[in-house]
Amino acid sequence: MWQLFQFPLCPFSRKVRLLLGEKSVGYELVRESPWLRRDEFIDLNPAGQTPVMADPTSGILLIDSTAICEYFEETIDKAALINGTAVNRAEIRRLVAWFDTQFYGDVVAPLMYERMEKRLVHRMTPDAKILREAMKRAIAHLDYVDFLLDHRNWIGGATLSLADLAAAAHISVADYLGGIDWKGHEQTRRWYAGLKSRPSFRPMLAERMEVIAPPKHYDKLDEF
Amino acid sequence: MWQLFQFPLCPFSRKVRLLLGEKSVGYELVRESPWLRRDEFIDLNPAGQTPVMADPTSGILLIDSTAICEYFEETIDKAALINGTAVNRAEIRRLVAWFDTQFYGDVVAPLMYERMEKRLVHRMTPDAKILREAMKRAIAHLDYVDFLLDHRNWIGGATLSLADLAAAAHISVADYLGGIDWKGHEQTRRWYAGLKSRPSFRPMLAERMEVIAPPKHYDKLDEF
């Protein structure tokens, strides 16, 4: 069985898990804390980042969330998630990159550093100014998601795609860390409530990161 | 004809140009300086980053270097660059992500900020300490490329792939900015000399970024 090296708040691992869930690929979770830079993990992935997937039976090792998602999209027919024409697929990949780079850099990375890494690793308190800035940027990003959903059923186009999973993965980590203000984002809320209720999503909502509790609404399907 | 919005030292645009060159896809260069945040460009790409490709005839707009490369890989049969089995393809994509994220973040981004953006935008002198740190990290990265080339003919496997083009794109920008110390990296030098002599690469070596001159060896095929 596949092993997935990850930690509960890794947004890139969440994206992979959502894809594996939609495609009904079985896997076992292996807890990895990349900030510890464990020698055996660096040997596996010199970049030192989660997610990594390993299949001990075949010896296959998959590294990097984009490479992992493309691999399962190519090898598992069920639930095509980078779907449609070449132009549709380019739009899905653009939006995956948007969440993996822009949303992550503007919102998720500063929240994770201030609320998680500072606490777990450096034993410091978060910088309120940086948190406020990240939350302000999150609002601008949700405005963009609202805009996309005004024109489309799903974030990447007419059907559920990897763009939705990437967006939900990053938003869910930001939401866990108290960085999302849901007021005024009706479209995005409705879309996110739909995603939260999917069988691929629900197990993740039940998991907790040590020492950090999410806000009360985090795992509720109809609260924000 | 395709238009490619880019500037001469954008490593992500260089990766796309190398791929288009290998596949013999014609395009016209449109100079874009993303740091100016031109309104018309932000309308085109809300992420505000190069490369962007537009085809005025069909109205197709492609954004993000990964999405662009995958698009042409899917639509142009000539010169498969994400090739081989699903596992080979995952390894190629891992290495593309390695150069686009790790090498870029460790080496290219600080060099570009210190040597290009500070000069062009902020009229400041570069920070020597940050430059030294980036150059030291570049050495560790070239050690890794040496290691890969000890085991393979090309960076991603047995044949030329997008991993080589991504690596060459980022290394060439770092080399232009004086950040690469070629001493002791015999394997990587030989590989890079081979890439430099390809018709897809040579036009880029002749281009210059205003106010910043590359070191003398930069566009020579046999000097380092």
Automatic annotation (TrEMBL), chains A, B:
**Which CDD domains does the record associate with it?**
GST_C_family, GST_N_family
Q: Does the keyword Flavoprotein apply?
A: no
Q: Which UniProt keywords apply?
A: Transferase
Which stretches make up the GST C-terminal domain?
85-215
Pfam families assigned to the protein according to its UniProt record, in alphabetical order = GST_N_2
Classification via PROSITE patterns? GST_CTER, GST_NTER
Question: InterPro entries from the entry?
Answer: Glutathione-S-Trfase_C-like, Glutathione-S-Trfase_C_sf, Glutathione_S-Trfase, Glutathione_S-Trfase_N, Thioredoxin-like_sf
> Can you provide one Gene Ontology molecular function annotated for this UniProt record?
transferase activity
Which residue ranges does the record assign to the GST N-terminal domain?
Answer: 1-80
Secretion signal: which residues?
none
What is the protein's name according to its record?
Glutathione S-transferase family protein
Q: Which organism is it from?
A: Sphingomonas gilva
